[in-house]
Write a structure and sequence with these properties.
The structure is a single chain. The protein is 90% helix and 0% strand. With 240 residues, the chain is mainly alpha-helical. It is rod-shaped. About 4% of the residues have low confidence. Keywords: ER-Golgi transport, Golgi apparatus, Membrane, Protein transport, Transmembrane, Transmembrane helix, Transport.
């Protein structure tokens, strides 16, 4: 019985240390996730990544389950010993000791399952949040590219609209200039006819009319050249 109690105390001490380490691992796991959310390149980020902590958790869980199984076996042996004939006089004290070890085993089992459930809940929650953050980042990245493309298309469309409007204005000016010149040409022809009639009647006036005609032709050439240069400049500006 003494050896069984010694084994039970030793297993209980080991379980106590393992459970404390498991609780610290659970806390550090949550902290490491928070650190990665804040700044993945931070110097204060935990040295152990979550995949390493997951493996440590699995290993420690197996070890604790084995210790709990061993402690259960020792308690069962102590229960068998208390029911052995010949120890009736010590039965009350032994039953008290056995009950105390059973209570400790129950507390450790409850604490282990609670800590394990908390760890799994934290891991599941963080995995879900990580997946959501990844989806959001992917959506933002794709939206940024699409927004940039849309902005470029809108700018190009606006540029084409401005070019079309400028071309329409240029054509309108050219048509108005043509109509004005046609009207002026008809008026000049009428005046020239009258002047020619007078020149035929008066020879002195004929020389004057010829000079006027030469100057008029020169002015027409200059005016035509100016209009042509302006039209070319407007076309170059429109297609720039």
């Amino acid at each position: 019985m003494f050896d069984l109690r010694k084994q039970a105390r030793q297993l209980e001490n080991e379980l106590d240390l393992k459970l404390v380490s498991l609780s610290k691992l659970c806390t550090s796991y949550s902290s490491s996730r928070d650190g990665h959310r804040g700044d993945s390149n931070s110097d204060t980020a935990p040295l152990l990544n979550n995949s390493t902590q997951d493996r440590m958790f699995e290993t420690m869980s197996v070890e604790i389950e084995q210790l709990l199984a061993k402690l259960t076996g020792v308690n069962d042996k102590m229960a068998e010993y208390t029911s052995t004939p010949g120890v009736t006089s010590l039965n009350a004290a032994l039953m008290h000791t056995l009950q105390r070890h059973r209570d400790i085993l129950q507390d450790y089992t409850h604490e282990f399952h609670k800590t394990k459930a908390n760890f799994l809940a934290i891991r599941e929650r963080e995995d879900l949040l990580g997946s959501v953050r990844k989806d959001i980042e992917t959506y933002k990245s794709g939206s940024g590219v699409n927004n940039r493309r849309t902005e470029l298309f809108l700018k190009e469309h606006e540029h084409l609209r401005n070019s079309d409007r400028l071309m329409d204005d240029t054509i309108s000016i050219a048509m108005a200039t043509k109509e004005n010149m046609t009207s002026q040409r008809g008026l000049l022809k009428s005046i020239q006819s009258r002047v020619n009639t007078l020149a035929n009647r008066f020879p002195a006036i004929n020389n004057l009319v010829q000079r006027i005609n030469l100057r008029k032709r020169r002015d027409s050439l200059i005016l035509g050249g100016v209009i042509g240069v302006c039209t070319i400049l407007l076309l170059l500006y429109a297609f720039h």
